[in-house]
Write a structure and sequence with these properties.
Blueprint lengths: L3 H8 L3 H16 L5 E2 L11 H13 L2 H4 L9 H15 L8 E4 L2 H12 L6 E5 L6 H6 L4 E5 L10 H7 L4 E7 L11 H18 L4 E5 L22 E6 L12 E4 L7 H15 L6 H10 L7 H17 L11 E5 L5 H12 L1 E2 L1 E2 L8 E5 L4 H15 L1
Parallel strand pairs: 1-10, 3-4, 3-5, 5-6, 6-7
Antiparallel strand pairs: 2-8, 7-8, 9-12, 11-12
The structure holds pyridoxal-5'-phosphate (PLP).
The site of pyridoxal-5'-phosphate has 13 residues, from helix 6.
Length: about 400
């Protein structure tokens, strides 16, 4: 016998992956200049020069056994210390190296935290739509129940009234992703403060803490000087899941961390349970070369000029044509209302008529919308504009 739910997850490729595979197939058939692939969130700017320089220097100057060896499960002391200092300098919190647990990116960070908080099968983790679709298997395959809060399609800020209606004594945590995939919206300080007040009230009422799990792979990807409030500064029972996949353009290198602030309720127990969950998944000791790189490059930030240009071009051009777009403040996604209201039908039409690959946001808990990843070449965006226009005609 084979585990049925794992089989199903393996057998059904995600919509995003299917569109991406279709794009590769069409590119071989009709040529790359006739395929407009907005499916995948794969960074299109290079890693900062300091990252590649560090990799070379580490390989050339350090002992190979040490570079490629196992590290402590929680990560190298130097990497944890560098991140702690960077966070403390930027956000003014007393961050300690031992509050950080290095992971192979945000996905295993999230799974470890979810597993650690899934006290029993009735434990609920709330997902605020629109949300990253992988949250669903992360929650449902790791011992908890996902409770989906429908989006506020007026502002795409936190849907607080709906959240309050769905919160329950079984709620263990709420996953908050800002800047948001797929809307590009940054949750305002005001709405996060309102969320914090609600959770403090409900935690008191239910007699146990309700944690915020802050999923932050896009923290550094912001435009026009927008502020991304650091949630532990607003709500103390927050656990941060961070990734360098997008901020340093290193998605294939698998490196990130969990930060459990020492002032969070039951911080030590929670940190220990996260370490245990990572052990169960076999996700201890993320790539040691990358940990050495982070020890040197924790303060590096991406050059966002190319994403910002794409953002302006795509948002401006589609809005001028009559598409209704959510104005992205961060990340590299544009959320667009599907003309006619049926996102799956529109995505199909765009694919079949124009080789234009747009992801229906239904899987993100946001039916009627399409997600466009603009981490692509500017040239592709320019070439794709007539296709968008033709679809409206
Ligand atoms: N969370 C969100 C919101 C994402 O968009 C992604 C990846 O696209 C992840 C988590 C997983 O990132 P990682 O590559 O660090 O596992």
């Amino acid at each position: 016998m084979i585990n049925e739910s794992c089989y199903k997850l393996g057998a059904e490729p995600s919509v995003i992956r299917s569109l991406f595979a279709y794009g590769l197939q069409q590119t071989a058939l009709v040529g790359p200049e006739k395929v407009f692939d907005y499916s995948l969130g794969n960074p299109s700017i290079p890693a900062p020069g300091a990252v590649n320089a560090s990799i070379k220097d580490i390989i050339d100057s350090m002992d190979s056994i040490q570079v490629h060896g196992y590290t402590m499960a929680a990560g190298l002391a130097g990497a944890r210390q560098a991140v702690a200092e960077d966070l403390e300098r930027r956000f003014g919190l007393p961050v300690k190296a031992q509050e950080l647990f290095f992971t192979c990116g945000a996905a295993p960070a999230l799974i470890s935290v979810i597993k650690a908080l899934a006290a029993d099968v009735s434990s609920e983790i709330m997902l605020l739509a629109p949300f990253f679709p992988e949250y669903l298997p992360f929650v449902e395959q790791n011992g908890a129940r996902a409770v989906i809060v429908p989006p506020d399609t007026g502002s795409f800020q936190l849907p607080l009234a709906r959240l309050e209606a769905l919160i329950s004594p079984r709620t263990q945590a709420i996953i908050v992703n800002s800047p948001n995939n797929p809307s590009g919206v940054i949750y305002s300080r005001e709405s996060l403060e309102a969320l914090a007040a609600l959770l403090e009230r409900k935690s008191g009422e239910y007699g146990h803490p309700i944690y915020i799990v802050a999923d932050e792979p896009y923290r550094e990807l912001v435009y026009d000087g927008a502020e991304v409030p650091f949630i532990p500064c607003i709500y103390k029972n927050t656990v941060v899941c961070y990734s360098y996949s997008k901020s340093l353009s290193l998605p294939g290198e698998r490196i990130g961390y969990v930060y459990v602030p020492g002032f969070a309720r039951d911080a030590q127990q929670l940190y220990t349970a996260i370490a245990g969950a990572a052990r169960v998944m076999g996700h201890v000791c993320p790539p040691s070369l990358m940990q050495l790189v982070i020890a040197r490059c924790a303060g590096e930030r991406p050059d966002l000029a190319a994403y910002d240009e794409n953002r302006r071009l795509l948002y401006g051009s589609l809005s001028a044509m009559g598409y209704q777009c959510v104005n992205p403040q961060g990340a590299f996604y544009l959320l667009v209302k599907a003309p006619g209201g049926d996102s799956i039908a529109f995505s199909e039409k765009a694919r079949l008529q124009q080789n234009l690959l747009l992801v229906p946001a239904d899987g993100f808990g946001c039916p009627g919308y399409l997600r466009l990843s603009y981490c692509v070449s500017r040239d592709m965006i320019e070439r794709s504009l007539p296709a968008f226009k033709a679809l409206l005609g």
